[in-house]
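ok here's DUF4336 domain-containing protein, seq below lol
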Amino acid sequence: MTGYEPLNTLKPVAQDIWLIDGPAIRFYGMPFSTRATVIRLADGGLWVHSPTQLTEGLRAELGALGPVRHLIAPNWIHYAWVHHWQVAWPAAQAWAAPGVTDRAARKGVPVKFDHALGDQAPADWAGQIEQMIVKGSFVHREAVFFHTASRTLILTDLIENFEPAKLPWWMRIATRIGGIQAPDGAMPRDMRLTFRNHFDALSDCVNRMVAWGPERVILAHGEWFRQDGAARLKRAFRWLPQQRG
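and the structure came out like this:
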């Protein structure tokens, strides 16, 4: 149980955008809820961010929406299920953020990536989804996306927002110490350390995301921001020296 049941099924967010709550995974010994985002592009194809566990029922639901054409691995942690989706949709193109391909190879994950993600949206979704590689960390290089039609910002681990009511008691303590507990979720404190010499670069990226004007922000872990997205984004990064005030 993750607290986000039903799992492995499409949940509408806005027109042409859905999310999928997946089963929990273990990371640092803690059960992390998982979440994918699906966007139907203008050509009818599906763009899938951070694919979660694929079941037959979910595969049928997706098939009713359109063909899966793009699989997005947005950072060095979120790629484990991409291979399973490639088996189901062999024609789909897989896109990797910096560091993903090397890590998958070291872990022996049998995934093949066709393209690298960068700061500019490729022709496949240009004009529909904005994107950027967040700068400043020597470890965590995450690709973030903004679906312009629905004004939805899609993040992965830059903000985590675990709801204490959905956690065992010991994880409530851990998430509070880590600075990632709802309703005041933010970047995990250990991740912040990887940006410590380049907070200005991270702040510039936050400003660009705010300038996109998101109404909602989908997060991979915990409660996502259903409204007031830009304000919630600024609040989540108020620990940055450049964002204070």
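fwiw The radius of gyration is 17 Å. kinda neat tbh
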